[in-house]
Amino acid sequence: MADNTYDVIVIGGGAVGEVLAERVVKRGLSAVIVESELLGGECSYWACMPSKALLRSGEALRAAKNVKGASAAVTGELDAAAVLERRDSFTRNWDDSSQREWADGAGITVLKGRARLDGPKRVVVRLNDGNAGNGGTGGTGGTGGEERTLEARHAVAACVGSLPRIPDIPGLREVRPWTSRDATSAKEAPRRLAVIGAGPVGSELAQAWNDLGSQVTLLVAEDRMLPTLEPFAGEYVAKAHVEAGIDVRTNVTVQSVSRLAGTGGGEGDVGPLSVQTDQGEIVVDQILAATGREPSTGELGLETVGLEPGRWLDVDDSCRVNGVEGGWLYSAGDTNHRALFTHQGKYQARVCGDAIAARARGEHAAPVAWSPYAATADHGAVPAVVFTDPEVAMVGLTEQAAIDQGMTVRVAEYEIGNVAGAALYVDGYTGHAKLVVDQERLVPVGFTAVGPAAGELLHAATVAIVGEVPLDRLWHAVPAYPTVSEVWLRLLETYGM
């Protein structure tokens, strides 16, 4: 059993699990990662990296076309094959050998297989076929190999991410729709694509495949795109999508999906699809379900430690799972449902790893606000970017969310195109920024910006909100001229400083 005992067992080798394992090893503990698919996980192979690679080429082409002098040099159209080849380079053609080399160099053991809890601090791993011992590289492998039982001295961390949610629409599952995984790894563009859902994933992938030549119909259940963000964000993106040729349909209900018979594909896995909506029928060649995420804990063995399987894991600010006797089970990333972004999951992993290591040394690691052992930013300072064109960048609370929390707020808004740096950046720059201020403390609590490269404005806003910087202090943070960041000065002036 000595070879099967580690200080920390990490279930899930995505970006979050990798960071957590590295963190505890750097603090003197031993760690093993158990991963059933590719080491590096969703972000590296099916989410952040490939999706942004798909989007970047079209964005760069439009940027060049929108600057006089450069636009005259743009004589061709987007090379779809080259875009897909570039995407493949970022996923290393779905080969995780370089990640395995990194883990070996970091002193982290990796097992390829499917893990489940089997009581306190015990994990049973069914090793992938052909990957016994220290595991192999690449691929998902089978799960019919030998079983190996691991014991943790201090902690087990569940970092198993989440799964795409397929909405309960009659016939949808039967036609095997694309999920985000399929949409970021497809080898060619479907001629006609329907996208159900206009959150960040649906909005981004609708744009990506439209750029690559698909005729895209975006089906939005609400009255606007990006419905959880400031209203103007969805309005700007919808306008750009429509101008790019995407058919954006709001307030639409998808009633059923079926595969058309007698059109070359019959009732099999190929052939056109009929999408019935309350606004009429749409015939497409592929459909993407981009309607959120659901827990991936159904087969984690939670019932062996007194928890209900198939649920998000409830954690404290140190990412220790509540309701587990002995406090040895932790969860970081999507699995705890606090903030479903890779950067927040990695942030949680650093906090969690430090808390595990401190407790292993017998130290008190209370997750009080702003301590190294508390993922405090999860509560009101989560930054995110929607990589559409224009980009949407946001951090903290929307105006409505702040009001819902009982704050007395005042907002300042400004058209970014009126800033000299924006006018220089791209001809006809169109964008908008909004600052939400807590009037009792006179500190910013929310920021949203829409426009070309708006994401580059985001970290300044994040620092201001995390640091609870008073507005009269922000007045002395002078933006360089002529940059787009001068919008900060204009927002303060609009507010009345």
TrEMBL record:
Domain named Pyridine nucleotide-disulphide oxidoreductase dimerisation: residues: 382-488
Cofactor: FAD
Ranges in coiled-coil conformation: none
GO molecular function, one term: dihydrolipoyl dehydrogenase (NADH) activity
Region: Disordered, residue numbers: 127-146
Every FAD/NAD(P)-binding domain range: 6-336
Keyword Transmembrane assigned: no
A single GO BP: 2-oxoglutarate metabolic process
Cofactor annotation remark: Binds 1 FAD per subunit.
Keyword terms: FAD, Flavoprotein, NAD, Nucleotide-binding
Entry binding sites for NAD(+): 197-204, 292
Biased composition, class Gly residues, residue ranges: 132-144
Pfam families named in the record: Pyr_redox_2 (PF07992), Pyr_redox_dim (PF02852)
Keyword Transmembrane listed: no
InterPro entries: Class-I_Pyr_Nuc-Dis_Oxidored, FAD/NAD-bd_sf, FAD/NAD-binding_dom, FAD/NAD-linked_Rdtase_dimer_sf, Pyr_nuc-diS_OxRdtase, Pyr_nucl-diS_OxRdtase_dimer
Record-listed FAD binding positions: 52, 334
Cysteine pairings via disulfide bonds: 43-48
Family in the record: Belongs to the class-I pyridine nucleotide-disulfide oxidoreductase family.
Name of this chain's protein: Dihydrolipoamide dehydrogenase
